[in-house]
Amino acid sequence: MENFDVNKLQSLCNDVDHYILCTQEYEKRVAWLPDYMKWVNTYLATQVLDKLDVTLPEGGAFRHLGVGSGEGVVEYQLLSRILNKHPSIHNTVIDPSSKQVDLYKKLIKEKAPALDGVRYDWRLQTLGEYQQSSEESGDNTKFHFISALYCLYYEPDMDAALEFLYSRLEPGGVLLVGMETDSCDMIKIEQHFQFAQDDMNQFFCTRDICAYYEKQRIPYLVCNQPDDQRDFDITDCFDDASDEGALVLDFLSNVLHFRQTVPPSLLKEFRDYLKKLATLRDGKVFLYYDSAYILALKNKVPNISGDAGL
């Protein structure tokens, strides 16, 4: 290992299709989506979406910006709830993956006519590209609700990304960011090894979001959900014959084809660190997952009350 240059490891983000496979395998184990949907339809719906201080002109549309919308499964829950109060929505979708956007468009067809009140503006861009193109074209569109879930850690400058998104909120609007907390083992792994670190792979967590809002004196609310604290099984990460375990190793390390690329000594070091963090139970190996949703509020603050958790 002494002669192995870890700086030459390729980031998982260099292969979008493989990244999607790894993400899907990871999310299958973490299983955060059902709890997120429950949270949307309870707290977010009743305490935020239903109380947004938004006044639309007659015939006007509620404007939503989705950052990193992916295949649309998560965003569908938001839009369905907003449609209960605002029958017309203009939804701008930002995602650089044409494959993910195609899946989103397929979902829309499957969910019709439930989403007939939504018009879409598709942007095959990163957030930075969207910002640049909108500034160059003089597009200063503001939005009543902006959602950026588990995607801002791909921004080279977190503060600049938050500044831009907050500037695009209408007064009374809300910016929703979802991200892992610093208690999450995924964050600990990234910070310990720092493999393939570049502009697309910063090591951000919810602590960084809160620090920015506090520095800028932006009112915000952290919604920690008890159901978003869980163990997830990584036992097959230690099985060299497991294809699924290899995908999870790639995701945890942020390295493309990690098991096949690194020398045995580094693979052992990585696995040893996983075991150091892990909980062993019934012959299986579990890591700890924790995330939170942070709501930034602009000027006219919605009347938020009650427990933000489930």
From TrEMBL:
It comes from the Eukaryota. InterPro entries: SAM-dependent_MTases_sf. CDD domains: AdoMet_MTases. This is Histamine N-methyltransferase.
